Amino acid sequence: MSPVFPMLTVLSMFYYMCLRRRARTATRGEMNSRRAIESNTRALPINVEIVQYAKEVLDFSSHYGSENSMSYTMWNLAGIPNVYPSSGDFTQTAVFRTYGTWWDRCPSARLPFTRTPSTFCSQDYVELAFEEPVYPTAVHILETYHPGAVVRILACSANPYSQNPPAEVRWEILWSEAPTKVNGPQARQFTPCIKQINFPTNLIRLEVNSSLLDYYTELDAVVLHGVKERPVLSLKTSMIDMNDIDEDEDEEKFACGMDTLNKQFSIVTLREWPTNGYFDKLPYELIQLILSHLTVPDLCRLAQTCKLLYQHCCDPLQYIHLSLQPYWARINDTSLEYLQSRCTLIQWLNLSWTGNRGAISVSGFSRFLKVCGSELVRLELSCGHFLNETCLEVITEMCPNLQELNLSSCDKIPPQAFNHIAKVGSLKRLILYRTKVEQTALLSILNFCSELQHLSLGSCVMIEDYDLIASMMGAKCKKLRSLDLWRCKNITESGIAELASGCQLLEELDLGWCPTLQSSTGCFTNLARKLPNLQKLFLTANRSVCDTDIEELAANCTRLRQLDILGTRMVSPASLRKLLESCKDLSLLDVSFCSQIDNRVVLELNANFPNVFIKKSFTQ
């Protein structure tokens, strides 16, 4: 038999093992649930259960509400329920910024990172502190509208109220599951079966994925049940299953993959073999292609098998695009240090959610970028609370080719630090959502970064004059395609006129919750006439939007795909029909709380335009 066949057989077996491992992890949520149910039947010592609501919201990735109010903000998760058991859209609940897949279908959508493990699907998170550290026995999540977004619940070993920070911060997954579609938007109490952990906690993290939801999910409160003393498991063994043991081993290997990243990458003394078998006969490119399907922990483990595969697993070409966000809980300075030699050619890097609570230091981040920043084109740093002015200075100095920078919800960066961004003249995408960027720094950025195509300034509350900002955009940012001005507090028709005249390539514009815009000034009519390429327009909660505005959109913006006019009182069914007839590509129309659009009208429009998702929210 030709040696090619055994060679390919060995390689196929390895590839099959990797695929089998992925397939098995897909059912891990079910296995964990079964183990949790079994563990609840085991004998516990006499121990009083403590029931407590969240005392404080410590951190979160996004929210629908304003930074200066309580409506629709994550801060509503602290304390007792405000709404439950009622169902509907209530301002007293916690609401994340996005839902569904609409945000993946607009001009500002970003390309996903490859090699993301199938078990990681989280899009947003919120961290809650409780008064008493306990060994959790149950977590109740009170969902009041469109439930089903929670996909992971984690517990942390660090006590946020302790005066002595721990030497090591551990996160354990209490429960996880893939996103599921829940029938109906009604309120429910979600109580998944959680696993037992070996440390007390008063810091719980919820991670959500809203991609399957028809509207924003709303959370009212979180209840933590637990005991002060560690439960003692019984010695019953009748329920032990060999498959469970096998799954436990596999899960432990996955968990330790990033924990021991430094050890695995630093292994240089491998067992001596006379040859690498048939792998020596495979083309280098073929092995590289096969390994490109492995996750980072799998690459770490495979690097220990033989010198040839070590060489392949450490090849910088395997790390052109690298997302460490799925492993946020285990990434630290040591991890970055041992990745340095592998990331010399890296172009896309995702460090979102990583480094908090001292895991990544300013010096560790700076050392990494000094070695690996020269080829970087895209850098994702969402919710990176370790970032400070020094970090932004290093980014601008070490990443001369940077085109995309995401600092979303990096609310610990001081205002003056944003001045450094103006040095990166090649920027095409800049996300500053929920940051403390000030007007002076932003004007400098707009002046020097004339290549900008996508800009997010949502919930940037420290900007004093958005009209001046809009005027600068119109003068300098001629290539702008998407602009997020969500909840900007003071833009007027003057700023809109400057923006529309100067940025005529705009395809996406979010003016949701901008209270100073009035239809009577002609600002929306001007937008429709000057921006014919618009595909997404959000005028959320602007009560003044009227039939004239809708008819101008129908006449001039025929490429429109998404329109949000939630809350308007002046739009009639007749103008909506004109819009739907004219804009053939329209797929999302939010008319929630539009007083002239009742459920009968929505049903009629849905029947006549079945390809459009027409949303009508409610309260009760």
From TrEMBL:
GO terms for biological process: SCF-dependent proteasomal ubiquitin-dependent protein catabolic process. Gene3D superfamilies: 1.20.1280.50, Ribonuclease Inhibitor. Residues 276-331 form the F-box domain. The keyword Chloroplast does not apply. It comes from Acrocephalus arundinaceus. The gene is Fbxl4. One of its GO terms (cellular component) is SCF ubiquitin ligase complex. Keywords: Leucine-rich repeat, Ubl conjugation pathway. InterPro entries: F-box-like_dom_sf (IPR036047), F-box_dom (IPR001810), FBXL15_LRR (IPR057207), Leu-rich_rpt_Cys-con_subtyp (IPR006553), LRR_dom_sf (IPR032675). This is FBXL4 protein. The keyword Cell inner membrane does not apply.
